[in-house]
Design brief:
ATP-binding, binds adenosine-5'-triphosphate, ATP binding, globular, Rossmann fold, 2 domains, P-loop_NTPase, three-stranded antiparallel beta sheet, alpha/beta
């Protein structure tokens, strides 16, 4: 992994006092206020919250897409800029954004091309990732011939092929029907466990958050803040049947209650 050179004692992502103000017409809008979090290496952490609570903004700050107005982010002993330029990041977004003229394999090879990895190694590593996401045999397919679920697997393979230390997933399964989403959750859990990467997921889907996470960070709005940090101690690997267990449902209900409390506070204003 790219982070191997970081000091052994600094194996967390630490977010301290982070705030974000955006310039808007007539002043500033505070999207995030005083966020403090610690994400352990190799863990699966989810930011859960209603639309507009700043989940994506926080992810973008950690991933060095934007700079926070206040506070600091430390990724395994590095700044977000150092971590990004050291190639520690992998991204999976809502839309898989595959190049339509390149095969599944060609799309997964793309970040390795950008890194100047020689062709034979590129091919071997991309094939290994396609296998990991369950797409061996589909490497020559063009994106137009892939289902929505398959396209998302290609996007996950493309993110993992650079062996990222941290994998950012921003609503990666939006637009899939509920059954397909659950199947992809099972797959993502398996892929994440096999890759050993630290995962940070953004979702507003409570069941998805419970199913995948070691820790769920519940966020509220106005301005975006952390309501609760909840440990999901359900045994792994989790499967679709686990989602029917009393413990799973209890987590789901408690998280839903926390979220509806935040909705109520907005309605009451
Ligand atoms: N560049 C920007 N300029 C002004 N306001 C912004 C900007 N980016 C985000 N915001 C505002 O900050 C708030 C948080 O946005 P963000 O996209 O992070 O929320 P979110 O929780 O990810 O929502 P969603 O689930 O709908 O994606 C929103 O009110 C949004 O309108």
């Amino acid at each position: 992994m790219g982070a191997a050179a970081a000091p052994a004692e600094a194996r967390t992502v630490t977010i301290d006092g982070v705030g974000m103000d955006f310039a808007v017409k007539g002043g500033t809008f505070t999207a995030l206020d005083d966020i403090a979090l610690e994400l352990p290496e190799g863990g699966f952490t989810t930011l859960l919250g209603p639309s507009g609570c700043g989940k994506s903004t926080l992810l973008r700050i950690i991933a060095d897409v934007i700079e926070p107005t206040r506070g600091t982010v430390d990724l395994f002993g590095m700044t977000p800029r150092q971590a990004r330029t050291s190639g520690l990041f992998g991204f999976v977004f809502q839309d898989p954004v595959l190049l339509p003229w390149r095969s599944a394999l060609g799309n997964v090879e793309l970040p390795l091309e950008a890194q100047g990895v020689p062709k034979a190694e590129r091919r071997e590593r991309a094939m290994a990732q396609l296998q990991l996401v369950g797409l061996d045999g589909f490497e020559d397919r063009l994106p137009a011939k892939l289902s929505g679920g398959m396209a998302r697997r290609v996007a996950i393979a493309r993110a993992l092929v650079v062996e990222p230390s941290i994998l950012f997933l921003d609503e990666p399964f939006n637009g899939l029907d509920e059954l397909r989403r659950r199947q992809m959750n099972v797959e993502l859990q398996r892929i994440w466990a096999a890759s050993g990467t630290t995962a940070l997921l953004v979702t507003h889907n409570v069941a998805e958050a419970v199913f995948l996470s070691d820790t769920v960070i519940v966020m509220g709005r106005n301005p975006g803040h952390v309501i609760e940090r909840r440990t999901i101690d359900l045994p792994r690997p989790r499967d679709i049947d686990n989602a029917l267990s009393a413990d799973f449902i209890a987590h789901e209900q408690e998280l839903t209650q926390l979220l509806s409390g935040d909705y109520r506070s907005v309605v009451d204003e």
